[in-house]
Structures are given as C-alpha cells and as structure tokens.
Amino acid sequence: MKHFNYFLIALVALSLNACKKYHQNQGSVFGTYYNIQYQSYSDLRPEIEACLEAFDSSLSVYNAESIISKINRNEEVETDAYFEHMFETARYVSEVSDGGFDITVAPLVNMWGFGFQHKEKASQALIDSILPLVCFDSVRLENHRIIKADPRIMLDASALAKGYACDIIADMLVAKGCKNFLVDIGGEVVAKGHSNRHKPWTIGITKPIDDVSGEHQELQDAVETINLCMATSGNYRNYYIEDGVRRSHTIDPRTGYPVHHKLLSATVIAPSCIKADALATACMVLGEYKAAVMISQIRDAAYYFILTDEEGNMINKTSSNWEELLHGKDL
C-alpha cells in the first residue's frame, strides 16, 4: 500500500508538470530586446510587463518621471526598493574596482554622447570641470532619499540596469512556481533548470565584432548551464568615430575619457545578474590585468575575457573557476 501511495504521488506530479507549457515572450525595453522563455501553467506576459514597467519607473534615465530622473533634477522624491538595491550594489562594485565603476559618471557619459543628454564638444578643460562631479563618495542614501554634495551630480544606472531587470523577472517567475526558465535582456542572462528540449540551456557569448547596428552577430563560444547569472560588456556596438578617433561608450570615471585597451569584451558570472552586469562593466574600464585581479578576489564570480594579443588576433582567457561556476556551484 505504501508503494502504491508513492506511485500515485509520482503520477500526480508528472501529470501536473505535463500541464505546464513552455512560453516565450519577446519585446523591446531599455533600448534593447528581451526574450523570456519559461515553463508555466499560463502565459505570464502581463506580469513580465508589469515588472518591467515598475523597474522603468524607478531606474530609467530615459523616463522623465522615474525616480532616478527626479533625483538628477534635484526634485524631492523618495527612493524605492529597486533604487536602493541598485545603489548598494553600485557602491559595492565601486569599492572592489577602486572607483573603476561609478554611477555618478553620468555627466561624462552625456558629454561624450552616450547618455540621456546632448553631446558636447569634448575638451580637456570641460573634462576637468566635470571630473569633480564624478565621485560615488559625494552621494549617500539616507532615509529613502539621495543626498548630494553638489546638486550638479547626476546618476546613471544603465551599466547594471539590464542585469537587474533579469533578476527581477527571474524572481517573479520563481514566485509563480516556474522552475525552468531563461531570461535574456539585451544579452544579460538568468537561466534556471532546463529548456523545452529537456536539456540544459545553451547561451551564446557574442564575438566582439564592430557592428553598431547589432544586426550581425557571430558567436565566439556557447555554454550550457542549468543555473546561471551572466552578463557581458563590450565596446564593439556602442561607439563612434570622430576626427579619426574611436570613442567607445565605456568611460573611465577616473580619467574622464573612453577606455582604449586590448580587452574587447568581458563576460562575468556572479550570484546575481545585477552584480554580474556591474562587474562586467568594471572589467571593461580596468582592462585585462586589473580586471582579472579584481574578479579573483571575489569568491563567487568568474570571468571570460575576449581580447587581442600582440599580433592582433582574438583570444579567450577565463578565470580558474569559470567552469566550476558555469554549472551553478555556489550560486
């Protein structure tokens, strides 16, 4: 009788799981795409869109009524849970990167033409006038409000927004009982469980080929996983050429200039996608050697770098724990 009961329980579990279908929701958000696949009893598009809308209302610098936009205009506004988690994660990554990552870089990003305000003609004098405004220590979060040392300081969460949005959607899917899903927002990814082919999820790492249109994607590598938060940062899409000089969207907050080094893209695994996203950006600012040291000091993070060697060939380098974390250990 006991074995019969176990059989019934197993049969019911299999029957319930069979009622769950794989759904796919796609669309545009934050100036990029989202592609979300998940196994569920019902289509969760309304819930997904509600999450993205709430996130946008908090952290989008392109939404004039968002919390971060009001903070940038020095309006009285209370921060919410989204903003406060972003702020604390940004503070952590700023510290571990020795200032290589800094969300107060917004005035410089705007000046170079990659932000939410109009581009200005760059000059050393202008950069020198902006640099004093770029300092994480000049802002603090107190009683659900941002306090600035100078009202001209502005914040930009774009360097970790896509990763954070992935986390938020993933948390919602888990709350809805989803055990198998892939959340992809502009290349930042959270994966859990298995695909509709009953196999681990396959995730591509894009080859960093110059392509501002984003239409010509070629894979450098592909990984399989059942438990992963991963983000990639690179300068091969968002850049322009001015007076014969290439300007990339990754701005070093310490110098005021776009970075220029042999690291073409940095893919980072971390316990959360927001952390992976911020760390990947920090890697692109720091360059190969300092980035490798930074990641090596973070127990639960790993990297996959694509860079050029002395002959100009494209090569890969991974941290010693890449394979270990790729399969979800300790995440």
Helix and strand topology:
Elements: H1 2-18, E1 21-29, E2 32-40, H2 45-59, H3 67-72, H4 81-96, H5 106-111, H6 124-130, E3 139-142, E4 145-148, H7 158-175, E5 181-185, E6 188-192, E7 201-206, E8 219-225, E9 227-234, E10 239-242, E11 245-248, E12 263-269, H8 273-286, H9 288-296, E13 302-308, E14 314-318, H10 322-326
Antiparallel strand pairs: 1-2, 2-5, 3-4, 5-6, 6-9, 7-8, 9-12, 10-11, 12-13, 13-14
Plain-language structure description:
With 331 residues, the protein is α+β, with helices and mostly antiparallel strands. 34% of the residues lie in helices and 25% in strands. It contains 10 helices and 14 strands. Strands 1-2-5-6-9-12-13-14 form an 8-stranded antiparallel β-sheet. It has a two-stranded antiparallel ribbon with strand order 3-4. A two-stranded antiparallel sheet has the order 7-8. Strand 13 (302-308) and strand 14 form a beta hairpin. The protein is globular, with a radius of gyration of 21 Å. Residues 2-16 have low confidence and may be disordered.
